[in-house]
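Progress against Task 2.4 (sequence-to-structure conversion) is shown through the following example record, which the project officer requested during the mid-term review.
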Amino acid sequence: MRLPAAFTEGACFVLFQRSHRFSNFGCRQPVFACQGVSACSAAGILNVAACTHCIARDPLNNRAQLFADVRTYWSGDAVKEATGYAIEGHAKDADGFIHLINSGAAALDYSAEARDANGAPTVKAWYDMTDADRAAILKATDWCAADNGYFRGGGFSSHYVTNAEIPCTMLRLNWVKGLGPVAQLVEGWTVALPEKVNDILWKRTDYTWPCTWFAPRCDGKEGSPFKTAYDVMNNWGANHGAIS
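Structure tokens generated for the chain above:
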């Protein structure tokens, strides 16, 4: 039975331990992390070979999955009004970005502190992780006490920001009446914001939770679910996704 979060402890430390790429004993393949929703079980039964709703494993690319709420849409105008900053790059192309945030269950790999052969930020397969990658990821993460408004039993939440632009795909498994399980996905990029802008927007939600800004790949076509970042969020099945 799943209890309402307000009456339980924040188990995010347990979730992150199972979903990211290393533990106290070194690198290892991630196992599983979820928030007790039926799509997790369905995905396990179907053995979907990619990241599904709340599944923190990916047999296709051996990279950890970022589980997050699809929480808030920020338009360019709203960001400008709140912070004075004019969005650019992929965020400007999408007319904004989506705040992906959850109470600490996200894999620590998405601090994007690991580096590829060219020194660029990346999320690595577990067997490519180095000691330097692990040290950098842990250094970029701290642990905040759970908000008693959500978790009366206490607990801790990881706290980091995806401070890099990396390509990724967001996916979830929806249940459609009369049809069954239907996968929904969108490609895009994480967005790196100036520190001051990042903090202002982040504090509009919950500053104790890990934070990722996501600009989907949009086509600008009228009536398309991919017209803008807003349309992507407005057509999303529910407020969760797995990002790889």
